Automatic annotation (TrEMBL):
InterPro entries: Beta-glucanase-like, Beta-glucanase/XTH, Beta_glucanase, ConA-like_dom_sf, GH16_AS, XET_C, XTH. Coiled coil: none annotated. One of its GO terms (cellular component) is apoplast. Residues 25-221 form the GH16 domain. The lineage of its organism: Eukaryota, Viridiplantae, Streptophyta, Embryophyta, Tracheophyta. This is Xyloglucan endotransglucosylase/hydrolase. Residues 1-26 form the signal peptide. It comes from the Eukaryota. Belongs to the glycosyl hydrolase 16 family.
Length: 280
C-alpha cells in the first residue's frame, strides 16, 4: 500500500513525538537517589511520576532533600528551576557536606540568593575544608534561572573541584595538597538541596526583605545524576584536567559574570590572598 505524503508526514510526527517522550522520561525516578528530609509532604514533595522534587518555603517552614548515598569523589549533575518574580530573602541551595564533626567539616556550596523582581539572582559558591571556609566567589548568570531548568554540576576528584553551569566551568579549585594547601580528600560527603529564608543577609546585603504575601516560594529540581568511578576505570571525568576549550569558556564566564572573588578582596586579606589564589 502506498502512503500519501500526508500519511507519511503523520507517521514522522508520531515517531518524533515518541522519541521526544522517551527522552523526556530518560532518567529514573529522582527519589531513587534523593530523599526529602526537611518539610517532607507539606513543603518538600516528589511529583507522582517521580521526575521532579519541589521545595517550597513559607513563613512556617522551608524544605530540603539529601542524597541517599555518600561520596568520596563524584560528579553530580542536577537541573534546577528557581522561584520566579520577587524572591528576595530566599536561598536555594545544592551542596556537598561531610558527615563527621562540624568543627572539621568539608562542604562545597552552591547557593542561589534571591532578588527583587527584575534583579538577578546571585550564585554564591564557597568551599569549606576541615572546618575552614572563606573561599567565596559569586556570579550572576547569563540566563534567567527562573524561566527554565538549567544544569548545575559539581565535579569533585583528586585533581580538582569544578563548578559548571550548563556545562560551562565557572570555578576551579585545584588540589594543591602537595604544596601544603588543604583539600577535601578524606571525608565522604552527601549531597543536599534546600530552600530556606535568609532575609537578614541574602539579598543586597540584607536590605531587601522577603515579601511573605508572595509565599509559597517554590524551586524545582530534576534529573539528578551522580557519577562515581575510580582512576583508570574509564570514568572520563575522574582523571581529566580541563582542556583548552573548557579553560577558555571558564575565562569568559568569570570575566563577564563573576561579581565577587575572595582572591581579589584585599580588604579581607590585607596581608595577601590565600595561597591557592596564586598557584597555577
Ligand atoms: C583538620 O584540622 C584538625 C584541627 O582542627 C587537625 O588536627 C587535623 O590534622 C586536620 N586534618 C587534616 C586531614 O588536615
Ligand atoms: C540583586 O540585584 C542587585 C542590583 O541589580 C545586584 O547588585 C545584586 O548582586 C543582586 N543579588 C543579590 C543577591 O543581592
Ligand atoms: C539528564 O542528565 C544527564 C546527565 O547530566 C544528561 O546527559 C541528560 O542530557 C539530561 N537529560 C535531559 C533531558 O536534560
Amino acid at each position: 500500500m502506498a502512503l500519501s505524503s500526508k500519511q507519511v508526514h503523520a507517521c514522522v510526527v508520531l515517531v518524533v513525538l515518541c522519541i521526544a517522550a522517551r527522552t523526556a522520561a530518560a532518567w529514573g525516578r529522582i527519589d531513587d537517589g534523593l530523599e526529602v528530609n526537611w518539610g517532607r509532604g507539606s513543603h518538600g514533595t516528589v511529583s507522582a511520576d517521580g521526575q521532579v522534587v519541589s521545595l517550597s518555603l513559607d513563613r512556617n517552614s522551608g524544605s530540603g532533600f539529601r542524597s541517599k548515598d555518600t561520596y568520596l569523589y563524584a560528579r553530580i549533575d542536577l537541573q534546577i528551576k528557581l522561584a520566579p518574580g520577587n524572591s528576595a530573602g530566599t536561598v536555594t541551595t545544592c551542596y556537598f557536606l561531610s558527615e563527621g564533626s562540624w568543627a572539621n567539616h568539608d562542604e562545597i556550596d552552591l547557593e542561589f540568593l534571591g532578588n527583587s523582581t527584575g534583579e538577578p539572582y546571585t550564585l554564591h559558591t564557597n568551599v569549606y575544608i576541615n572546618g575552614t571556609g572563606s573561599k567565596e566567589q559569586q556570579f550572576h548568570l547569563w540566563f534567567d534561572p527562573t524561566a527554565d531548568f538549567h544544569t548545575y554540576s559539581i565535579v569533585w576528584t583528586p585533581l580538582h573541584l569544578l563548578v559548571l553551569v550548563d556545562g560551562t566551568p565557572i570555578r576551579e579549585l585545584k588540589n594543591h595538597a602537595d604544596r601544603g594547601v588543604a583539600y577535601p580528600s578524606w571525608q565522604r560527603m552527601r549531597l543536599y538541596g534546600s530552600l530556606w529564608n535568609a532575609e537578614d543577609w541574602a539579598t543586597q546585603g540584607g536590605r531587601v526583605k522577603t515579601d511573605w504575601s508572595l509565599a509559597p516560594f517554590v524551586a524545582q529540581y530534576r534529573n539528578f545524576t551522580a557519577t562515581t568511578s575510580s582512576p583508570g576505570a574509564g570514568g572520563g571525568y575522574y582523571d581529566q584536567e580541563m582542556d583548552a576549550t573548557a579553560q577558555q569558556a571558564m575565562k569568559w564566564a568569570r570575566g563577564t559574570y563573576m561579581v565577587y572573588n575572595y582572591c581579589a578582596d584585599s580588604a579581607r586579606f590585607p596581608y595577601g590572598s590565600p595561597p591557592e589564589c596564586y598557584m597555577p
